[in-house]
């Protein structure tokens, strides 16, 4: 079975989630253990219309913790009353359940356990449970949902329940129970997938590693550059102590650089992919692995870019609140009074600032839109064209507006000799490099001769092969949701 097939829900769409009319509803479900998970599971099962019987080593003491509708009894008593038993006990204590092997024979055991480390044991917990109870059928499932998710109802938290087992019938039964509880069962195949399922809750943001390192790397480079220009240069050349600038000013000149460059890095791989397609005259040639990886991380890179842009907005908003800023204002006012300067209004400066703040706000607004529509729940409500329009067209507009924001901020500083500290050009000039390359490439790709060729390639035309084409008038653009084969 392919991975795509495995990701499909086990049950068809005709049954509503939590529909009490399904055959699973109303049956008796057993739960071994009376801890956090067992309690939340029992509450959810009861509210989904199941009868619940809990098996505890000490039922008298634990009964008060469960809903009144759930029966709490000794372990052996509980498992006798049902065919499906959730084992809500840690792996370390599985062996203490061995006395129940006879009563558990022929029954379905649902292993919900997790480990504390990735690949902690040689065999998965579910396989270990199956080896202890060979006469029972073990199904791995529900370990990716937390006790909190179970209690918070169908609307909150992760809705997917990954299920695997060597027994199709048992898997179907557990999937049906999950669906009645309001979850979406996902078939992960046979028991050999249990290890993978058990590792899922332990992974720490796997898709975010590369984008986070990229953002940190860029932050470090720009921070050092700005530190040299804003703090070290005045100290060495004029013996002025500007260390106070580090926490806010230097950070605030670094954040927009990272945000802007990261935003352009969302669109650069699409440009490189288009170059490759144009060069080889086909869309069927695999991209190099690094480009493939880059294309797959665009969403995370874009979200980190938005995060830095949002922080930049907050920092900028707070700039006038600083004590240093107030002192500088008073100092300037006093100087002007001493020099008897009356008119300090510089028309050009006023316009520059009005424009760059305004376009900055628009750019941030557009980036918020990109970030919101990249959330799965929102993205799922859009069709492909809407998603592509927002992520591709509006995303590119956000990049162009961010470039206007940078240019109006920098204005003529690139041509001012005094701005070259230690011969280092102003930071904004460096940040323009990648975004301007992307914008230029996009403009070139929009030239009719190149655009037509790219469109033909993306519809399957290949250099050196004769295929008659009638091009529709529909527009084709790069989309953040595309895979390497259809960028
Ligand atoms: P817990 O609060 O510590 O409960 C474990 C339960 O195991 C105890 O209440 C105990 O119930 C029972 N047990 C049976 N034999 C035992 C023994 N020999 N020694 C100690 N306890 C024994 O743990 P939990 O958080 O509910 O987790 C239970 C299982 O669910 C674990 O495998 C965990 O990985 C999995 N899980 C938990 C969560 C979560 O959010 N908590 C999420 C996903 C998966 P009695 O005293 O009544 O027998």
Automatic annotation (TrEMBL):
The entry's keywords: Copper, Endosome, FAD, Flavoprotein, Ion transport, Iron, Iron transport, Membrane, Metal-binding, Oxidoreductase, Transmembrane, Transmembrane helix, Transport
KW Ribonucleoprotein (keyword) present: no
Reactions the enzyme catalyzes: 2 Fe(2+) + NADP(+) + H(+) = 2 Fe(3+) + NADPH; 2 Cu(+) + NADP(+) + H(+) = 2 Cu(2+) + NADPH
A GO term, aspect molecular function: ferric-chelate reductase (NADPH) activity
Signal peptide range: none
GO biological process: copper ion import; iron ion transport
Keyword Endoplasmic reticulum recorded: no
Domain Ferric oxidoreductase: 258-400
Protein name from the UniProt record: STEA3 Metalloreductase
Annotated organism of origin: Brachypteracias leptosomus
